[in-house]
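Case study 2.
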Amino acid sequence: MTDKRVLVAYGTQNGGTAGIAEEIAATLEKDGVPAEARSAADVTDVTSYDAIVLGGGLYAGRWHRDARRFARRLKDPLLERPVWCFSSGPLDATATQKDVPPTRAVLRDMSRIEARGHTTFGGRLDPRPQGWLARSMAKRGMAHDWRDFEQIRAWAHSIATDLSKQ
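Prediction:
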């Protein structure tokens, strides 16, 4: 479909956001768009990519620190290419029932890099997560996977379509 190479970078604590990023990359690949998912903490250079998808798990209304740092650290090269953003985190069905806008903090991060769009996907809370707050939530019965992979693939298809028009 296109020869544009896409990086899907993510910040995650317990792996739920990584699963979303991997699904986005796999969907782009199936649509003929070369893509790879990588932890935002491991990326130091984006010049070999033509477009970026940046996502972060939401913690107290903010992206995971690796996603925030990625946006700050690589701001200048990100401004030179199309960027789409996603958040994962509602631990309920909200994200599949309606459009959940980005939080104020995520909007700030997106505006710095002039992101073209954003979506929010349901999150996942592992039964044995890292972090005291997540463990407390899991003990209260909130451990569940709220990610909707059909919704994730549909969003990735829309990015592939946008890239094919450029």
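The helical segments are 16-30, 65-73, 75-79, 94-97, 104-112, 132-142, 149-164.
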